[in-house]
Amino acid sequence: MLESQRGELDSIKASTGAALCSLKDDLEGLKASNGSNSELQSMLESQRGELDSIKASTGAAPCSLKDDLEGLKASKGSNSELQSMLESQRGELDSIKASTGAALCSLKDDLEGLKASNGSNADLQCILESQRAELDSIKASARREDSALRSSGCASHHEGPQLQEQVAALATRLDSLVAAAAGIGIKHNVLPELAELALGLQQDEEAEAGAHTRILAVIDDLCCRLAEVESSGEVAGSRGGSCGFSETILPEFTHKFESLAARVQEMQQVGHLMEVKLADFVHSATVIP
Q1: What domain of life does the native source organism fall in (predicted)?
Q2: How does pLDDT run across 144-197, given as a tens digit for each residue?
Q3: C-beta contacts of 147-155 below 8 A and 24+ residues apart
Q4: Which H/E stretch holds residue 245?
Protein backbone atom coordinates (compact mmCIF):
# COMPACT_ATOMS: atom_id res chain seq x y z
CA MET A 1 0.00 0.00 0.00
CA LEU A 2 2.86 2.41 0.81
CA GLU A 3 4.48 1.62 -2.52
CA SER A 4 1.27 2.43 -4.38
CA GLN A 5 0.93 5.74 -2.50
CA ARG A 6 4.50 6.62 -3.37
CA GLY A 7 3.81 5.86 -7.01
CA GLU A 8 0.79 8.17 -6.96
CA LEU A 9 2.84 10.97 -5.35
CA ASP A 10 5.57 10.57 -7.96
CA SER A 11 3.04 10.73 -10.76
CA ILE A 12 1.44 13.84 -9.20
CA LYS A 13 4.86 15.49 -8.88
CA ALA A 14 5.67 14.64 -12.46
CA SER A 15 2.35 16.05 -13.72
CA THR A 16 2.81 19.17 -11.58
CA GLY A 17 6.31 19.70 -12.95
CA ALA A 18 5.07 19.19 -16.48
CA ALA A 19 2.26 21.72 -15.91
CA LEU A 20 4.70 24.29 -14.54
CA CYS A 21 7.01 23.78 -17.47
CA SER A 22 4.09 24.19 -19.84
CA LEU A 23 3.06 27.35 -17.99
CA LYS A 24 6.55 28.77 -18.28
CA ASP A 25 6.62 27.98 -21.97
CA ASP A 26 3.28 29.67 -22.47
CA LEU A 27 4.46 32.75 -20.60
CA GLU A 28 7.58 32.92 -22.69
CA GLY A 29 5.51 32.57 -25.81
CA LEU A 30 3.23 35.33 -24.69
CA LYS A 31 6.11 37.61 -23.95
CA ALA A 32 7.62 36.87 -27.30
CA SER A 33 4.45 37.38 -29.26
CA ASN A 34 3.51 40.57 -27.37
CA GLY A 35 -0.11 39.49 -27.30
CA SER A 36 -2.90 41.48 -25.82
CA ASN A 37 -3.39 41.67 -22.08
CA SER A 38 -6.83 40.14 -22.31
CA GLU A 39 -5.54 36.95 -23.89
CA LEU A 40 -2.76 36.82 -21.35
CA GLN A 41 -5.28 37.29 -18.55
CA SER A 42 -7.47 34.46 -19.80
CA MET A 43 -4.52 32.15 -20.17
CA LEU A 44 -3.34 33.00 -16.68
CA GLU A 45 -6.79 32.25 -15.28
CA SER A 46 -6.81 28.93 -17.08
CA GLN A 47 -3.37 28.03 -15.80
CA ARG A 48 -4.30 29.13 -12.30
CA GLY A 49 -7.33 26.80 -12.33
CA GLU A 50 -5.18 23.91 -13.42
CA LEU A 51 -2.70 24.68 -10.64
CA ASP A 52 -5.51 24.77 -8.05
CA SER A 53 -6.80 21.42 -9.18
CA ILE A 54 -3.29 20.00 -9.03
CA LYS A 55 -2.79 21.42 -5.52
CA ALA A 56 -6.11 19.96 -4.39
CA SER A 57 -5.23 16.54 -5.69
CA THR A 58 -1.74 16.81 -4.21
CA GLY A 59 -3.16 17.74 -0.77
CA ALA A 60 -5.71 14.90 -0.86
CA ALA A 61 -3.02 12.31 -1.52
CA PRO A 62 -1.09 12.93 1.75
CA CYS A 63 -4.37 12.80 3.71
CA SER A 64 -5.15 9.41 2.18
CA LEU A 65 -1.61 8.32 2.89
CA LYS A 66 -1.96 9.39 6.55
CA ASP A 67 -5.20 7.43 6.87
CA ASP A 68 -3.51 4.36 5.43
CA LEU A 69 -0.62 4.76 7.87
CA GLU A 70 -3.03 5.04 10.82
CA GLY A 71 -4.81 1.91 9.61
CA LEU A 72 -1.49 0.09 9.44
CA LYS A 73 -0.61 1.17 12.98
CA ALA A 74 -4.01 -0.02 14.27
CA SER A 75 -3.59 -3.33 12.45
CA LYS A 76 -0.21 -3.77 14.14
CA GLY A 77 -1.94 -3.49 17.55
CA SER A 78 -4.57 -6.04 16.55
CA ASN A 79 -1.82 -8.33 15.30
CA SER A 80 -0.16 -8.22 18.72
CA GLU A 81 -3.49 -9.10 20.36
CA LEU A 82 -3.93 -11.96 17.90
CA GLN A 83 -0.42 -13.16 18.70
CA SER A 84 -1.17 -13.18 22.43
CA MET A 85 -4.42 -15.10 21.82
CA LEU A 86 -2.51 -17.65 19.76
CA GLU A 87 0.03 -18.06 22.55
CA SER A 88 -2.76 -18.59 25.09
CA GLN A 89 -4.44 -21.18 22.87
CA ARG A 90 -1.11 -22.96 22.40
CA GLY A 91 -0.65 -23.12 26.20
CA GLU A 92 -4.14 -24.59 26.65
CA LEU A 93 -3.43 -27.18 23.96
CA ASP A 94 -0.20 -28.17 25.69
CA SER A 95 -2.01 -28.60 29.03
CA ILE A 96 -4.74 -30.68 27.35
CA LYS A 97 -2.10 -32.87 25.73
CA ALA A 98 -0.38 -33.37 29.09
CA SER A 99 -3.62 -34.30 30.90
CA THR A 100 -4.64 -36.63 28.07
CA GLY A 101 -1.29 -38.38 28.27
CA ALA A 102 -1.64 -38.82 32.03
CA ALA A 103 -5.16 -40.23 31.62
CA LEU A 104 -3.92 -42.70 29.00
CA CYS A 105 -1.12 -43.85 31.30
CA SER A 106 -3.60 -44.36 34.16
CA LEU A 107 -5.92 -46.31 31.85
CA LYS A 108 -3.05 -48.55 30.76
CA ASP A 109 -2.20 -49.25 34.41
CA ASP A 110 -5.84 -50.13 35.14
CA LEU A 111 -5.91 -52.51 32.18
CA GLU A 112 -2.74 -54.21 33.37
CA GLY A 113 -4.28 -54.60 36.84
CA LEU A 114 -7.43 -56.14 35.33
CA LYS A 115 -5.34 -58.56 33.30
CA ALA A 116 -3.39 -59.56 36.41
CA SER A 117 -6.59 -60.11 38.43
CA ASN A 118 -8.07 -62.50 35.85
CA GLY A 119 -5.94 -65.33 37.25
CA SER A 120 -7.14 -64.71 40.81
CA ASN A 121 -10.79 -64.97 39.67
CA ALA A 122 -10.23 -68.66 38.89
CA ASP A 123 -9.14 -69.26 42.49
CA LEU A 124 -12.19 -67.41 43.75
CA GLN A 125 -14.37 -69.58 41.49
CA CYS A 126 -12.96 -72.74 43.10
CA ILE A 127 -13.61 -71.33 46.57
CA LEU A 128 -17.21 -70.54 45.64
CA GLU A 129 -17.73 -74.06 44.27
CA SER A 130 -16.50 -75.61 47.52
CA GLN A 131 -18.71 -73.26 49.54
CA ARG A 132 -21.71 -74.22 47.42
CA ALA A 133 -21.07 -77.92 47.98
CA GLU A 134 -20.75 -77.39 51.73
CA LEU A 135 -23.93 -75.32 51.77
CA ASP A 136 -25.79 -78.08 49.92
CA SER A 137 -24.64 -80.62 52.51
CA ILE A 138 -25.83 -78.36 55.34
CA LYS A 139 -29.19 -77.97 53.59
CA ALA A 140 -29.52 -81.74 53.30
CA SER A 141 -28.70 -82.25 56.98
CA ALA A 142 -31.21 -79.54 57.94
CA ARG A 143 -33.90 -81.26 55.87
CA ARG A 144 -33.12 -84.60 57.52
CA GLU A 145 -33.37 -83.03 60.97
CA ASP A 146 -36.65 -81.39 59.99
CA SER A 147 -38.05 -84.73 58.82
CA ALA A 148 -36.93 -86.42 62.02
CA LEU A 149 -38.54 -83.65 64.06
CA ARG A 150 -41.83 -84.04 62.24
CA SER A 151 -41.90 -87.81 62.75
CA SER A 152 -40.90 -87.87 66.42
CA GLY A 153 -42.28 -84.56 67.67
CA CYS A 154 -39.04 -83.75 69.46
CA ALA A 155 -35.29 -83.73 68.75
CA SER A 156 -32.18 -84.80 70.55
CA HIS A 157 -30.66 -82.37 72.97
CA HIS A 158 -27.21 -82.88 71.43
CA GLU A 159 -28.16 -81.97 67.83
CA GLY A 160 -28.31 -78.24 68.59
CA PRO A 161 -24.60 -77.75 69.35
CA GLN A 162 -23.66 -79.77 66.25
CA LEU A 163 -25.79 -77.58 63.98
CA GLN A 164 -24.45 -74.49 65.70
CA GLU A 165 -20.88 -75.67 65.04
CA GLN A 166 -21.72 -76.21 61.37
CA VAL A 167 -23.18 -72.73 61.08
CA ALA A 168 -20.16 -71.22 62.84
CA ALA A 169 -17.82 -73.07 60.44
CA LEU A 170 -19.82 -71.82 57.47
CA ALA A 171 -19.72 -68.28 58.85
CA THR A 172 -15.93 -68.53 59.19
CA ARG A 173 -15.66 -69.70 55.60
CA LEU A 174 -17.88 -66.84 54.47
CA ASP A 175 -15.72 -64.33 56.33
CA SER A 176 -12.61 -65.68 54.61
CA LEU A 177 -14.39 -65.58 51.26
CA VAL A 178 -15.42 -61.96 51.77
CA ALA A 179 -11.88 -61.02 52.80
CA ALA A 180 -10.42 -62.75 49.73
CA ALA A 181 -12.97 -61.11 47.46
CA ALA A 182 -12.20 -57.69 48.91
CA GLY A 183 -8.47 -58.29 48.40
CA ILE A 184 -8.50 -59.40 44.74
CA GLY A 185 -11.69 -57.80 43.41
CA ILE A 186 -14.88 -59.55 42.25
CA LYS A 187 -15.95 -59.43 38.60
CA HIS A 188 -19.50 -59.27 37.31
CA ASN A 189 -19.55 -63.00 36.48
CA VAL A 190 -18.82 -63.90 40.14
CA LEU A 191 -21.42 -61.64 41.77
CA PRO A 192 -24.39 -63.89 40.73
CA GLU A 193 -22.73 -66.80 42.53
CA LEU A 194 -22.38 -64.74 45.69
CA ALA A 195 -26.04 -63.76 45.37
CA GLU A 196 -26.95 -67.45 45.03
CA LEU A 197 -24.96 -68.24 48.15
CA ALA A 198 -26.75 -65.47 50.06
CA LEU A 199 -30.09 -66.79 48.79
CA GLY A 200 -29.20 -70.26 50.07
CA LEU A 201 -28.42 -68.86 53.49
CA GLN A 202 -31.73 -67.01 53.50
CA GLN A 203 -33.58 -70.20 52.59
CA ASP A 204 -31.84 -72.03 55.43
CA GLU A 205 -32.88 -69.26 57.76
CA GLU A 206 -36.50 -69.59 56.61
CA ALA A 207 -36.31 -73.37 57.12
CA GLU A 208 -35.01 -72.81 60.64
CA ALA A 209 -37.86 -70.38 61.30
CA GLY A 210 -40.36 -73.03 60.14
CA ALA A 211 -38.73 -75.58 62.42
CA HIS A 212 -39.01 -73.14 65.32
CA THR A 213 -42.72 -72.72 64.61
CA ARG A 214 -43.30 -76.47 64.56
CA ILE A 215 -41.32 -76.97 67.77
CA LEU A 216 -43.34 -74.25 69.48
CA ALA A 217 -46.53 -75.97 68.35
CA VAL A 218 -45.28 -79.27 69.83
CA ILE A 219 -44.40 -77.48 73.08
CA ASP A 220 -47.86 -75.90 73.24
CA ASP A 221 -49.47 -79.30 72.72
CA LEU A 222 -47.24 -80.80 75.39
CA CYS A 223 -48.12 -78.02 77.81
CA CYS A 224 -51.82 -78.62 77.20
CA ARG A 225 -51.39 -82.32 77.90
CA LEU A 226 -49.40 -81.60 81.05
CA ALA A 227 -52.13 -79.23 82.19
CA GLU A 228 -54.75 -81.91 81.58
CA VAL A 229 -52.71 -84.51 83.48
CA GLU A 230 -52.10 -82.13 86.40
CA SER A 231 -55.80 -81.20 86.47
CA SER A 232 -56.89 -84.85 86.51
CA GLY A 233 -54.32 -85.60 89.24
CA GLU A 234 -55.57 -82.75 91.39
CA VAL A 235 -59.18 -83.93 90.97
CA ALA A 236 -58.26 -87.49 91.93
CA GLY A 237 -56.23 -86.28 94.93
CA SER A 238 -59.12 -84.19 96.20
CA ARG A 239 -61.31 -87.30 96.15
CA GLY A 240 -58.80 -89.22 98.26
CA GLY A 241 -57.97 -91.76 95.57
CA SER A 242 -54.97 -92.44 93.46
CA CYS A 243 -53.76 -89.84 91.03
CA GLY A 244 -54.49 -92.19 88.16
CA PHE A 245 -51.04 -92.04 86.51
CA SER A 246 -47.61 -93.43 87.18
CA GLU A 247 -45.11 -91.38 89.04
CA THR A 248 -42.70 -91.80 86.11
CA ILE A 249 -44.99 -90.12 83.59
CA LEU A 250 -44.63 -86.59 84.94
CA PRO A 251 -40.79 -86.69 85.04
CA GLU A 252 -40.80 -88.07 81.48
CA PHE A 253 -42.95 -85.21 80.24
CA THR A 254 -40.84 -82.77 82.22
CA HIS A 255 -37.66 -84.10 80.62
CA LYS A 256 -39.17 -83.83 77.14
CA PHE A 257 -40.36 -80.32 77.86
CA GLU A 258 -36.93 -79.23 79.08
CA SER A 259 -35.27 -80.89 76.08
CA LEU A 260 -37.58 -79.12 73.66
CA ALA A 261 -37.12 -75.79 75.43
CA ALA A 262 -33.34 -76.17 75.25
CA ARG A 263 -33.63 -77.14 71.58
CA VAL A 264 -35.72 -74.06 70.83
CA GLN A 265 -33.26 -71.80 72.61
CA GLU A 266 -30.30 -73.29 70.74
CA MET A 267 -32.05 -73.01 67.38
CA GLN A 268 -32.96 -69.41 68.16
CA GLN A 269 -29.29 -68.68 68.83
CA VAL A 270 -28.33 -70.43 65.60
CA GLY A 271 -30.94 -68.45 63.67
CA HIS A 272 -29.73 -65.18 65.16
CA LEU A 273 -26.14 -66.06 64.26
CA MET A 274 -27.17 -66.89 60.70
CA GLU A 275 -29.07 -63.60 60.41
CA VAL A 276 -26.02 -61.62 61.56
CA LYS A 277 -23.65 -63.45 59.23
CA LEU A 278 -26.04 -63.15 56.30
CA ALA A 279 -26.41 -59.39 56.86
CA ASP A 280 -22.62 -58.97 57.08
CA PHE A 281 -22.12 -61.03 53.94
CA VAL A 282 -24.73 -59.12 51.92
CA HIS A 283 -23.25 -55.80 53.07
CA SER A 284 -19.73 -56.92 52.14
CA ALA A 285 -20.89 -58.15 48.73
CA THR A 286 -22.59 -54.83 47.98
CA VAL A 287 -19.63 -52.63 48.92
CA ILE A 288 -16.99 -54.64 47.00
CA PRO A 289 -15.90 -52.64 43.87
Answers
A1: Eukaryota
A2: 665 665 565 444 445 555 666 666 666 666 666 666 555 544 444 555 566 666
A3: 149/211, 149/214, 149/215, 150/214, 153/218, 154/218, 154/256, 154/259, 154/260, 154/263, 155/215, 155/259, 155/260, 155/263
A4: none
